[in-house]
Amino acid sequence: MTLYCIIEDDNGWKVVDHPDTETADNLAHRLGVNIIDSGPYHSWEDATDALEALQLELGEEAEVDVPGNNPLEGRYETED
User: Fold this and answer.
1) What's the pLDDT score for residue 78?
2) Whole-model pTM?
3) DSSP count for the chain of H helices, then E strands
4) CA angle (50, 17, 45) in 5-degree steps
5) Residues 49, 66, 74: CA angle, nearest 5 degrees
6) Cβ(39)–Cβ(27) under 8 Å?
7) What is the sign of the dihedral through the CA atoms of 27, 29, 35 and 38?
8) Is residue 18 a contact partner of residue 31, using CB atoms and an 8 Å limit?
9) CB neighbours of residue 33 within 10 Å
10) Average pLDDT over residues 39-63
């Protein structure tokens, strides 16, 4: 049976498959990547749905937690 997990490599986050005889941690070690969500997911569709949900969730948080591009905009400096 094939299982799926979500990993991060140099190109970003993606869904990968692995045999049920291998854990997501072993897969990550073998490939030299980071595990984002070990699942295990039993279908490609479930794994891609989870990936999209994570990206949406983090995107919403990023809008709140990340300061604007110009944090000093609107401030002024005075000369002594």
Assistant:
1) 56
2) 0.69
3) 2, 3
4) 35
5) 145
6) no
7) positive
8) no
9) 15
10) 84
